[in-house]
Each structure stands twice: as structure tokens, then as C-alpha cells.
Amino acid sequence: MVQIPKQSAPSSPAQRPVPTSADVARLAGVSRATVSYVLNNTSAVRISEPTRRRVHEAAKELGYVPHAAARSLRAGHSRMVLMPAPTVPVGPLYSQFFNELQWALSRLDYTVVQYGGVGLHGDEAARAWAELRPVAVLVPGSGLGPEGLAVLKRAGARAVVTLGPERVEGAHALLMDHDRVGHSAGAHLLARGRRRIGVVMPGESGLEIFSRPRLDGVRRALRGSEASVTELPLAYAEEDAARLAARWRTLGLDGVFAYNDEYAMLLMRALQDEGVGIPDETAVIGADDLMLGRLLRPRLSTVHIELPSGRDLAELVDRAVRRPGAAPETHEVLGARVVHRDSS
Amino acid sequence: MVQIPKQSAPSSPAQRPVPTSADVARLAGVSRATVSYVLNNTSAVRISEPTRRRVHEAAKELGYVPHAAARSLRAGHSRMVLMPAPTVPVGPLYSQFFNELQWALSRLDYTVVQYGGVGLHGDEAARAWAELRPVAVLVPGSGLGPEGLAVLKRAGARAVVTLGPERVEGAHALLMDHDRVGHSAGAHLLARGRRRIGVVMPGESGLEIFSRPRLDGVRRALRGSEASVTELPLAYAEEDAARLAARWRTLGLDGVFAYNDEYAMLLMRALQDEGVGIPDETAVIGADDLMLGRLLRPRLSTVHIELPSGRDLAELVDRAVRRPGAAPETHEVLGARVVHRDSS
DNA sequence: TTGAAAGCGCTACCAA
DNA sequence: TTGGTAGCGCTTTCAA
């Protein structure tokens, strides 16, 4: 790591206090009320053009910026949509989804804020979020329990939406059941005539939320067939992959769902180094449909995942905020379809 | 995209108002002051144990959560550290850095918030941030100008830190000059005996902040030598890479710096499909030292990039907050070193 | 067309 | 040990 050395310096004179609307009023020679009317373009009241100009000029001269906290305190509500920041590196899929969401919510005049909550868990996290009195909270994963939801609602959140595997009673839910991903992969391998199927389980913590349901999905796809499932713990490291590959033939697997494309790449490389034929000896399929899969040889089969559109989620949020009493909506939003290439 | 259908439902009875400290006081049979003392563990004042218990019970019963905006309004300052959310998908390097930073700041009792600012630019963005009255603002990239800085300072931000290629007068700066990355790559290729060197310039917008300085770095490394530089515009798409590879031999390049490992993988694949020998005919080097580079054949040479530690940045922030008048610190924090593998 | 003033929820000073 | 209360910056009702 690059070091940032400690450094000291003489302190400069105390900074000027932050200008308030009262300062603007004083400078413009009007009342604070008038300032508010002018700066907010209040339509219920007519302010003369010269006065408007004076106010605007005063505001600009002072560099006045309204105080969001004071405003929302007075208003009794905010337009803040809060979302916990992801703590695991997130792929291009999610990035795009989030950007879209954020853009759409901005258009609806909401302010989107990601709350950095490393170290906060469960209800503790919900309390921290509630302190900010967001008008809506979007919770990915499965970190929200009934108690957390209650806290948020009591704190005035008019819309709480979970994005994850299960719904919470009373909250809106965008169900993203990764079971489907595993199911697609499993069904595909089965259809390709594979019967002894491995499923990679990432060793990295935080991924169980995805890997567990994906495994279940594979199991579900194979139910009623004579095919079997073998769990394959695998850390995202070359040596671990090599170790797994070394004992590959003893496992006797003819197909493997590698959790996602990145793990698939790791595993494929190790298998190829070991001389295991892909797809003849073992078929490999990943998930996420990343570019890298297309660049591998053999080209990697994968499960393409569709997230909901950010615009749709933004509209759901807006609807819920406007009709807070409405019954929670639940939507299955995770699409999964196999992209068959050469590795399976 | 998966559609979320519109949906309607009858609205339920109006929700109870959000409980305030006055409600807690009423229920506990004490004053609001006492509630505040108890819930904040104010050490300057002793509250009897029975009273404490009554207050805590009342708070729990009502599900009371303090109102952060009211608190910081009263206090005259917040503990919020604001950072614009990245709009481009961000790699594991940055994710780790951010997590570390966030964790370290939490330990120092700051609240870290990422502000979703798609669509906001320059001073407009600075104004939006200023409305939240953050105690510190961390700005990656080069989006902050002198005017934006002034706005933030006037709004009471006690620390403004830029993380990018250049400093802004009056703000702390963590200089991350990607020139160094290009310089390392260029020097390496030169040392390997390459003289006609290509530099991939990603077609994706938003990446110029990195690609331009990296290119300059290569140029700088080659200055004084007889080596030449050729810019290679390349979109992150197979076809575009194939197109580039098809005319590769007419370019007569014997070395290429591929911007980063992902573009390197894309280009290498296209070159190999075209029958171009790597590294004999053309040496390839990427950047970022991603896992995928180790999985390629030949293994990808790369420039390993070191970001500052999140802990150090957190300490810089804390220092600056505590001594707001101190002279801005500037640190060169981007480390770059070549990891030589088989592709160069 | 403009101003005076109340009050959002909270904390901290001063008094009891 | 506890309570009364002023006031943070803002909007909005009511009066002038």
C-alpha cells in the first residue's frame, strides 16, 4: 500500500459561517419569507420582478445553498431514496441496473443515496437507515427482517422494497430467485446428456446468498432423473482450482455448473491444464454472460441473467410513495436463459 | 427486460405519526431533555438508574429512532462523509479500497454516503452535495472545479479531498496519475526490445480520464528512444477487436499496451484468432493485475496498480475535519509496477 | 406584494 | 437529578 504520511500545518483563520436564507434576506432587503418564495418559485404568491432579481442576486453573491436537513425537517418528509451500498464487487450487470434506477429516480425528483454499511447487520442497519428518514428504502439481498421493516415504517419510510430471494411480509418485493439460474444450467446439462453434475460453491463469503439457491436450482432441475449432484467448494484462486482439477477424474463428473463465468474461467483453465477435455469429458457452463466467456476457447456456455429495468423499479417506488397504504407488490423479476456455446 | 406490471390496490388507514423524543418523554413521564440525556449517554449529567430504565423502555416500546436531520441541524454540523457514486462499473480494486475506507471512517464515527449523481455535472453536482451539508466530500475523477470547491466550503464542508489526476487549489488531493501506469508499460515494452508500440484507447466514454494519461505515460517512457506510438481505438466488443486484428500486420506493431487486462484479453483473443504470435510477433501488456490475466495463455503481463489504503485516507479525512484551517495535503498515491508474465 | 411568526425534532444551557 | 426553553434553517399560514 502507498503510504500517506502524517503532515501538520498552521491553522488558518476561522471560516465564515455558512450563509442562511436570513443572510440572503438581509442582503436583499426583504424578509426570509420572500426569499423562500423566490428561490422556490412558489406559484401561490406573486413576487415583483425587481424583488426577485434582488433576491437572486443576493443569493448568488453569498453563494447560498439551501439546507436540505432544515428543509425536510420543516416539510416533514424527504425525497431521499436510500439503498445500502453493495459490499462485494459488483459486476457490469448490477452497475447498469443501478445507474438506470438512479437516473429514473432523479427524473422523478428523488435523491438516491447509497448508505455505506460495512459492519452493520440486520436491525442495527435498519435503525441506521431509519435515522435518515428516507422516503423509500431499497434493500438488496436478504438482510431485512420483519423487525427491521417495522423500524423503517415507523420512521416514516413510505416504500420499502426488497430485492432478493424472499419477500418480507409488508414490504414490496422484487423477487430475484437465483434458483432459476441453477435450474436453467442444470436442465441444460441434463439435456446435453450429462448425469454426474458438479456445482461450484464459491469459498468467498457473502456469495452464499447466490450460490445456495443456484445449487438448489440445479437439484430441482435434476429431480426425477437419474442424475446426481456433487458440491464443489472452490476459492477464487489458481492453486485451489488446480487442487480441484487434480482430483477431477476421481470425481467422475461429466458436467459442471461453475457458479458464474469468472469461476468457470478459473476452473476451465485448471481442467485444461490437467488435460481434461471440454466439453467431451466434462461440460462446463457458467452464468452472467460476461464478455470473457465469449473469449474463452472453447467458448463458454452460460446462463444469461436479466435484471428488472431500473425504470420499472423507479416507477414502483414512486407509486408506493404516493400511495403508502397500498398493498405491497411482489414481482418475479429474474430472468434466466441458457446461452449455449461450445463448452457444453 | 423483465416487466413490472402496474398494479393497484385499496389504500389502508393513515399511518401513525413518527414517534419523537417528546413522545418518549411523555410515555416515560419525564422531560424531553432527560430523554436526550439518557439516549445520548450524556456524561455531563447524572440520571438515576430507574429513570434511565423508564426512558429506554419507553423508547423501545415506541420504536423510537432519532431524527438525524434534526440532530445535525441543532448541532450545526453532521458526521456525513459524502462521495459521489461511481457511474462506470468498477473493478475489485476500487471496491476493496472503498470498503476499507468506509469501514475505517465508520470506526471514526463518520457516516459514509454515496450520492447517486448520474446526470449532474460540475458545479451543479457540487451544489447538490452541498445541500446535504456533509462534513467532508471525497471526489474521484476530475469533476470538481474551483467554483464547486468554493460552494462546498461555503456550505461548511471541512474537508474536501479529490482523488484524481490533478489537484484543485485549496482542496486536499490524492493524486492518482495514471501516467505512471502507461509509463511502466511503455518502459517495459521498450526494455523488451519493442519499438513500434500500440496503445489501446477504449471507445467507451468515461474512460478517457484514465486512457488519456496512460497514453501520455507511454509516450513519456518512449521519449528519447527511436520507438513510436500508435493509438488504437477499440470498443469493448468482439467484432471491433476482430476488425483491429485483421489489419494488425499492416500496422507493423511489435508491442501493445492494451489499456487494461480486460481489453488485453479481448485483443489477445482476436490476435490469436488471426494467427498473430504472442509475444514473438507482438508483445501484449495489460493493467490492473486481474485474476483473468493469470488464466490466459500466454499468461498476461500486466501493470499492477496500488491504490492508497482506505485507512490512510480515512485518517486524512479525520485530520482535515479536526483542523479545517490546515494547509491542504497533496499525496502521490498511485503505485504502478510491472508484473512480467508470458505475453511480453 | 411583503412580513411576522410558528413550529418541524433535537440538544445544551441554565435554573430549580 | 431533572425540567424549561432557546434556537438550529427552513416553509407556510395569516395579517398587513
Automatic annotation (TrEMBL), chains A, B:
Name the SMART domains for this protein. Answer: HTH_LACI
UniProt-annotated stretches for the region Disordered: 1-20
Q: Which UniProt keywords apply?
A: DNA-binding, Transcription, Transcription regulation
- Polar residues: bias regions: 1-14
State if DNA-binding is listed as a keyword.
Answer: yes
Q: Name the SUPFAM superfamilies on file.
A: lambda repressor-like DNA-binding domains, Periplasmic binding protein-like I
Among InterPro entries, the record links this protein to:
HTH_LacI, LacI/GalR-like_sensor, Lambda_DNA-bd_dom_sf, Peripla_BP_I
Residues in HTH lacI-type domain copies: 19-75
Molecular function terms from GO: DNA binding
**CDD domains hit by this protein:** HTH_LacI, PBP1_LacI_sugar_binding-like
User: A Pfam family this protein belongs to?
Assistant: LacI
Domain of life of the source = Bacteria
- From the Swiss-Prot or TrEMBL record, give the protein name: LacI family DNA-binding transcriptional regulator
Please tell me the species this chain comes from: Streptomyces siamensis
